[in-house]
Design brief:
The structure is a single chain. By secondary structure, the protein is of the alpha/beta class. It is 33% helix and 24% strand. It has a single domain, classed as Spore Coat Polysaccharide Biosynthesis Protein SpsA, Chain A (Alpha-Beta Complex), CATH 3.90.550. The protein starts with a strand and ends with a helix.
Amino acid sequence: MIKKGIILAAGNGTRLKPLTNFTNKHFLNLYDKPVIFYSLSTLMLANIRNILIVTNKKDLNILQTFFGNGKRLGLNISYAIQKLNTGIPTAIKSGEKFIGNSPICIILGDNFFYGAGLQNRLINFSKLKNGSKIILYPVKNPELYGVANLSSKKRILKIKEKVKNSKSNLAVTGLYFFDKSLLNMIKKLKKSKRNEFEIVDILNQYLKKKKLNYELLGRGSTWFDVGTPELLDEASDFIKSTQKRNGYKIACLEEISYEKGWIKKKHLLEAEKIYKNSAYSKYIKTIK
């Protein structure tokens, strides 16, 4: 069972400039909440409460001021600084002490997942004992992502990064489940032609050992990598319309924690004061 999770919330957000010249992309508005609320809520839905946020030195204070040690959310939150911007594996290695000898769930801080039965699927994913599991999602522009090529028997043949004219449209989303051998895999990596360490090279190591599995998110599920202004707007429109239609908020951290029994009513009352006279605070008042 995976009990630890890492949110990768550093990076420069180059595809979002000039927005990210002023703030970390994980603090931008994704409709009515900061982007990082959505990745954090994904870990919470997977029953992961021990969480490390990897961030930049300049943004550490903002995160610590808001989330603290996570106690008010029923979580245990700690922090690490990513010193080098040389790929996702480097960011993961920033949490080496946190990972230790444990299996781990990694999520990119700008990823948004939604769908019927998502919580149950995430909980099942976190039961991983050996190998690695990735989440695939069909996209119209696979050249922007790492993609998985499948055989006729629906087995993964190869994971490739940002391939032009890809035969596969199955993007590898930014949610990964790894067993305790992850750090050893990272040590074996060499830099790619982009002068970075690539997450796909880790996945292909697992694949070579026949320990890479996947789940496909199809109809009824939604995934966004909100790394561009267009995708940020598209995801915001989706959240706005879904919340308006259903009457509940997506990624309300306090609601998730309360429904799981991690916090009590008094914590909801404290949260109302934190968010003051906002729509988010008024929504928390409706939680029973």
